[in-house]
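ok so i was messing around last nite and threw this chain in just to see what happens. nothing serious, just curious
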Amino acid sequence: MSLQKNQTAVLTVDGYTAEGLGVGRTEEGEAVFLPGAIAGEEVEARIVKAKKTYAYGRLERIVRPSPRRVEPDCPYFPKCGGCDFRHMTYEEELRLKARRVQDAFVRIGGFAVGQPEIVPSPVVERYRNKAVFPVGEDEGRPVFGLYRSRSHQLVPIETCRIQSAEAAALAKAVCRWAEETGVRPYDEGSGRGLLRHIAVRQGEGGVQLTLVVTVDALPDEPRLVALCREAAPALCGIVINTNDAPGNRILGDACRTLWGEGRLTDTLAGHTFRLSPLSFYQVNHAQTEQLYAYAASLAAGDGQTDALDLYCGVGTITLTLADRCRSVVGVEIVPAAVDDARENALRSGVGNVRFFCADAGKAARTLADEGFRPQVIVVDPPRKGLDDTAIRAICDLGPERVVYVSCDCASQARDVKRLYELGGYALHSIKAFDMFPRTANVETVVLMTSNK
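result:
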């Protein structure tokens, strides 16, 4: 590559990376990845890192702006890593995400697919029902905020446009308590300090606050409770989560209810769920209902379908499937989530489900040995996707259909290719859902059908 560090170049932006960076090109076709650039623009950029076949740049001047460029409406953008796309229209963001899904399935999966349909989020601002704020110090005072993109450098904030006002109010109250009592924020470098993260989750039953600390011994707990109840009248519980492990894992395994309820209640797709702080739950409530309804429509047959739901969490998809299937087995590795799932099924009066607490691959293997043969398997794995044991177990069970829900289309495309190669499952359809507006993430639902 002829481009050198600190060199400036005029580039034509013709696309995006999977992370949403603009891809600018020189007249010779050399690729430069540019944060904040929009397809169709002509820009002047300074090279900050040059590799053999590509470079990273920084926008210096927009020579010809895109009509899809807008003025960012947040004072912290793009400093904090909370949002990626506040500089473009929502329509352009949706187009970018649909192209990202298509590219993953073409480039990684090797499938000849067109650009999929993408379902816009019903809510774009303050849509998240869960906020997790890291805590640090600014001029000796405890502050909350978000990390800069690709770093653990804290950007202090007062509020966030994709989080709720209650989340910011509670975070301010916690920082006030920390300052009053001399509680020090945790420092990853030294491993010292008490307060690591402030997590806030909201549902129909109110607002739940979880403090992640290194030691479960807090000074003046009554003052903490009083400040938080004053900041958020809808507060229904405060939980203390202990995590003394080094590294960037957010939650530890031990929880103690300091005040109020230890679990939060919410209603989704007609079912009531009780959620512990350790349980996974989708962050965009309105969009989740649309996604789950669509996934269930792909999975359910004539009401006589037996289904397996791997990575079931607190049973949200499991109970949605139960409304349309003869029986459903849910599998989850987190014990607290399985406890929540069983209670949620009882509370909703759903009798055609059962739950296993186990690794997805091992549970699927056990069920296969028992002779359980579901007509459909639904998977909603973490970002890393399915491991080889899970893929082989799915193929051994031999369902007619596999419905794959994913928040990472790259790992999903890889796994879909493996299911095709090992089990003969053909890619039938792809549909994207914008679960995370203003960020580079996108949720995708894939239907695969057996060729056997």
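not much to say yet. The chain has three domains: 8-64, 130-264, 284-450.
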